[in-house]
Amino acid sequence: MNKHLEDSEAWFKTASSVVDENPRVACAQFSHAMIKALDALFEEKLGETPGRHDKATDFFKKLLNENLIKGEESKYRNSIQEILQKKSSAEYHGEYFSKSDALKWKKKVKRIMNMVRDYVEK
Fold first, then answer.
1. Reported confidence tier of residue 122, pLDDT bands at 50, 70, 90
2. 121 pLDDT exceeds 90?
3. Sign of the alpha-carbon torsion through 96, 35, 54, 107
4. Which of 110, 94, 122 is nearest to 24 (CA)?
């Protein structure tokens, strides 16, 4: 398995284990699971990963614009952008995140991870 995907799975597993007791921490960990999955996709298709997490959206747009992934994957762009924008609030600013928020992120991130797997584990 790709090292980035392996890390993504670990982040996802640990995030899932704390949804009930600390949804904010779960959201922070889900964001890292998504970032690591996207790193696997970027490395596979572009040969590089973004130096900063906030550049992941730009890298994803590049994959779409250069037809390196199917156009239908654009449906993930808003989720990626939303999670990246709220990541630091979950991680550093102690903003309130509910269990419902954490479960929504879990679902979105799992879908993104599955999409990445389709390209990386061929």
1. confident
2. no
3. negative
4. 94
Cα–Cα distance between 18 and 41 in angstroms, integer?
27
pTM above 0.90, yes or no: yes
Q: With contact defined as beta carbons under 8 Å apart, do 6 and 122 qualify?
A: no
Q: Angle CA(42)–CA(69)–CA(110) in degrees, nearest 5?
A: 70
DSSP notation for 53-113: GGGHHHHHHHHHHTTSS-GGGGGGHHHHHHHHHHHHHHHTS-----HHHHHHHHHHHHHHH
The whole-number average pLDDT for the span 20-39 is 97
Tokens of 10: 């670990």
Structural domains in the chain, CATH included, are 3-117 (1.20.120.330)
Count the neighbouring beta carbons within 10 Å of the beta carbon of residue 92.
9
Angle between helices 56-65 and 23-46 (to 10 degrees): 40
